[in-house]
Amino acid sequence: MVNGPLIRNISDTARWVAVYRARETQRTDALFRDPYAQRLAGERGEAIAAAAAAGRDDWPFPIRTFLFDSFITEHVASGGDLVVNLAAGLDTRPYRMDLPASLRWVEVDLPEILDYKEDVLSGEKPRCALSRVRLDLADREPRRKLFAELGRAARNALIVTEGLIVYLEPQQAAALAEDLAAPAGFRRWIIDLMSPGLRRMITRRIGSMLEEARSPLRFSPEEGPDVFAHQGWRPIEVRPFLQWAARKRRVGFGMRLLSMLPASNGRQGPRPWAAACLLGRAHPDA
Length: 286
Description:
This protein is about 40% helix and about 15% strand. The protein has about 290 residues and is α/β, with parallel strands linked by helices. The protein has a 7-stranded mixed beta sheet. The chain is globular, with a radius of gyration of 18 Å.
């Protein structure tokens, strides 16, 4: 039994999302397999998922994970030498994905969540060169220093921010985008975005849980994937969740019909929309 608020802080959302990775792993047609997810989710993760069950469908979480996996695989295959996972939470990609041993992977997050993950995975071995940095990403000067150090040591780095941007205020997201554009070695960036309409829908359903943890959904830019153009990032590829969920048979007939409508991958409004977006530097030689 879990006492107190189910979601105590933003780190607890990582326990929640791990539940859906565990459930996907149990499917015979799993899009990916995460043998560590159930242990990491723990009792609290299961309790959060149970409380949210009436508020939203499960399919967006595994679809998001699958799409991020796909972008990462493609980047590494094209010669990527570094992956920087910001707000890494309970992500286990360095342990579960087929990655070259020479790949450098850096996880950045708060001490509590990384300590918890290290404890749970203490007997496991990552498949690549994994290191962890305990840092509050809200502290701008320390993160700029870290980005500069990592950028100097990389030729073709990929930044991963799965499930992070949506919790930031617009000015915070813009500042992060600006800081990520500074190091020359940071070449690509994966983000997940949602439309204003989808944010309002989710907030109506489970917003009280997130508000209680002081982690409301904040970022749903009307600009869509072009949102960070002024900070030097342009969309290279946009993979909408619904279209991919329909392709992978993760939604019912009605949702599959909706997926046949023309994809709206530009400016966003009241229509529910979410996507994994691969961004590249607007000026590759900068």
